[in-house]
UniProtKB/TrEMBL annotation, chains A, B:
Residues 1-24 are annotated as: Disordered. Residues 45-64 bind DNA. This is TetR family transcriptional regulator. Gene3D superfamilies: Homeodomain-like, Tetracycline Repressor, domain 2.
């Protein structure tokens, strides 16, 4: 992570012109998309991205709170999954699916559905973006949730949860499939939460439903 | 639909050069993607598409069996959903989800997973492609299945089924999320079929699972 000390580092002074905040943020986002795509999330450094953007590395902390926040902004993800974990775990485990669905819908509805479609576009065309997003969401969100719950077969549960949550996003925000596209969150919860809850804590074996 | 009679129609003779079969198919697919995107599935005619491609309209029947087949090929959908309905309905209703999942995985695994990602890319960036695909799949596949089953709330069931099936495709073919990306079909069926079956024939109300 960069710090204010980076202002006095040995990087060459970049293009002389001053930028305002909007310019700086925009330049950092563009550079971040390029550098993350080229190098992956782990290898990309704040200094490299700031260098590409022609701005001081300290601006990454200033505007995005660090590399993780810059990544989320660059991928247009409107919430930090890490911030969600405590909130999602605050309640009965048998209602976790309902809490996940309410939060998912409020985050993406709030961001405007077009942002989910933009994320899908960027991911579907880009194996590196796919792998970054996959590792990030799995490690930061679902694995932590499942550890807290102590579930068996966590990898399979994570993947199954992803099918349902991503599929809901596709139906609501990309395919615009009615009645889900304009359903209120209570309809979504009552119809989908039981399925998602089975993936989180239910029996994954030879379960049969009438 | 065009027919052999179209060979003798009043369209002007197009570019004089002869094409071989591969050229003709390729020109028709390119023209179809353009014309379907411009005019939508219903308005686009075989004659317009053939005209754009500079080939005889009869070639659409010859190579694709008609407009529906040309649409599926243009969208890179490796199977005609209409052909699946009798097969999917041949068996106990309570095992319909299992049959859908087995067929979905065999079709897209067989086509090479990249084709699903290509479909998602083309759809996520194109509202017209979304609307064509949405109407086509809903009308041709799921509505017909649910009519046969006589289910209540068919629109909601269709949309819910889509969340699960599309979400599985995203996890397996786009995000490559293990263990689902390389799971055998039996694992997919035992873990996902109960959820899909609830969407098809189960109680969508205030169902709760332990």
């Amino acid at each position: 992570m960069s710090s204010a000390a980076d202002r006095d580092n040995d990087e060459p002074k970049r293009r002389g012109r001053r930028r305002n905040g909007a310019d700086t943020k925009s330049a950092l986002l563009t550079a971040a998309r390029e550098v993350f795509a080229e190098q992956g999330y782990e290898s990309a450094t704040v200094r490299t991205i700031a260098g590409r953007a022609g701005v001081d590395p300290a601006m990454v902390n200033h505007w995005f709170g660090g590399k993780e926040g810059l990544f989320l902004a660059a991928m247009r993800i409107p919430v930090n999954p890490a911030d969600l974990v405590p909130e999602l775990l605050d309640g009965p485990p048998e209602e976790l699916a309902e809490r996940i669905l309410r939060r998912f819908v409020s985050v993406w509805d709030g961001a405007g559905g077009g942002q989910f479609a933009a994320l899908v576009r960027s991911v579907a065309g880009n194996e590196i973006a796919v792998s970054m997003l996959r590792d990030f969401v799995r490690n930061v969100l679902f694995n932590r949730l499942l550890q807290e719950l102590g579930s068996d077969r966590p990898d399979l549960r994570v993947a199954l949860c992803a099918t349902q949550v991503v599929g809901l996003g596709m139906a609501r925000y990309v395919i615009h499939l009615e009645p889900l596209a304009s359903a209120d969150v209570d309809t979504i919860v009552s119809s989908i939460a039981p399925n998602l809850q089975r993936y989180l804590t239910g029996d994954l074996g030879e379960v049969t439903f009438a």
